Amino acid sequence: MGQSNLTVSGLGFFQDRSMDARLSFLNNVESDVAIDLDAAILEDSAFLLLEQMKRKGYLEPTIEGRMLVGETERSVYWQGDYAIQLEVDFVAEAVEFIITPGVLSYYDTVVVDGVHAIEAKQVERFFIPGGVLFSGKKARVFTYENFERRQGRLLRALDDLGYRSAQVVNQQIDIDPVSGAVQVELTIEQGPLYQIGELEIVITRAGSEDEVRKEPAQGVVFTREWEQAERAALRNEAYRAGYPDATVSSEIVADSEEQAGVLLRHLRYRVDYGQAVTLQQVEFDGDAATKRSVLKRQVELKAGEPLDLIAVSEARRQLMGLGIFQEVGLQLEPTSGDARSVVYALSPSQRKELQLRAGWGSYEQARLGFRWEHRSPWGRAHRYEVEVKQSFKSTLGEATYSIPQFLGTDLTTYLNAEYNYREELSFDRRAQGMAVGTSMQLSDTGLRLAVEYGFSQENADRLDLVSFESEEDATVASVTFKASLDRRDDFLAPSSGYSLYASLETAGQWLGGSVNFQKLELGGSYHSSLSESILLHAGLQGGTIFTTGAAEDNIPFNERFFSGGENSVRGYVEGGASPRDSGGDEVGSESYLLLNLELEQRIYSQLSTVFFFDSVLNARDGFFDREREVLSSIGFGLRYQTVVGPLRLEYGHNLNPRDSDSDGALHFSIGFPF
Bacterial surface antigen (D15) domain: from which residue to which, for each copy (predicted)? Predict the structure, then answer.
């Protein structure tokens, strides 16, 4: 492959390379291969570069084309308003396009008159992004294209509120040629609020109108969402009855003004059921590696019954829920007739995947590892996963074999084996064991339920066994019930919503172990906006572990709670905010209550500052009945949003340190703390 004879410069190394690649893609040529440079490709390239710069907000770019013709060099300029510069028969041996972008245009002020249904600040946000303390010019880039899009979104928002005839009646755009600041003035005629008046539904079945009904809908706002929902409800009613060809149409009967600013729209919906159809058979096309018996268990459709298109679509969702298909297509064959087959076209997803893992924590420092996943290894939609992690303080090896939609239900059943070794502040923790369980995700509610039986060997290697007695070597056999509800807008970097979780573990000799205890943990988080750029985050969690026998014989040391660290009380290192024995070693607590409060100030779109308060109430023994202590810290941090969560640099200062505690701790980590 030869060196390309078409290059781009003027924007800096990385942007030049990006524009060069973009130009090669748009011209459908290899970026590192010499090509024939005739007038057509040179003019097209100049035009494409001008358009790309305009889309970036540089409305008056200049392109200089330095072209080598024989032994001479010729320079040609293309301005913001493109015009042909080359003769039809012109040919060059090489060209360098030098881009002078000019001034970046950005939204400076936007004034919109005539809108009363949306607050003025929210109207401005359709054009100028908010949610941060400072918004740079590149976050407010103005182009005529994005102006039309944002103007259209504002009109659609009014339409969604019931103002169906909202329109722009006047607009003025002033662009400062020196600074690039753009002043926009818009006048919008909002129009009346549309509501539903009389609603008439005419149903045609078997070629005759056999049902006419009127449904009152006074006070209901007439929006496109309402229209779509009404159409879907009428159509689904026919689908369930076995009429897959049903169609729904609507017409406006009349408009009448009920009062000032409100217009009643009277509607008639016509539902044509079409031909009744019975199900002939169910077929699967594609992905021969997956056993048909597995697929048939997900499809509860019986030949000879009315063809229920809703049930057919639900079966498609069940097939997708197996997690082994990229897409499941659906078609009826033949496309007409009173008996048809349902054909699911299966497009398999990637079945084998290796992911490398890397991370950083202030305690464990660098974390490296990998995750291997194999989906449907024997054509039964099962999967197995192997994960290995190694850090300076810990070693983790885990393997999981799972069966999604077990026996045609929404349950996922799994078998898990795990080995975990970790160096804590005052002891070494080791655990190895197996667990079998089942879980279910209620997709409509966000609720996840799980039950698990686990059998593990837990060991704690402690230096001081005299100052505090506990069970260092235990065989734990337990049943654990878990429930979680996640209503956050983003689990990586939440800005609104809440989450809740609960876990109850019962361990006993009757289950095959050597100890008897119960362990309960409850918690949740809440996230809300106090202003456009200030977020409130609150987390509250607690737990207790108790036994009817002697604690030193039944509560394994590894099962105790150890607070402190980057995701707990941040004035302490990992586990450092735990109760101690007389020798000064951390021994954990049998009960704890942890509070985390944060104020996050978004400086730029990806950079934030955080002020936080963390506090834990520990009870070394029992349920807060004796030897209680409260440890608290306040702190400040910086966060940078990445695709894997926030990159966090935080310092916590201890408000009431114990004699042997440090004044605070510095943490560098990735991921939201709670």
Answer: 379-674
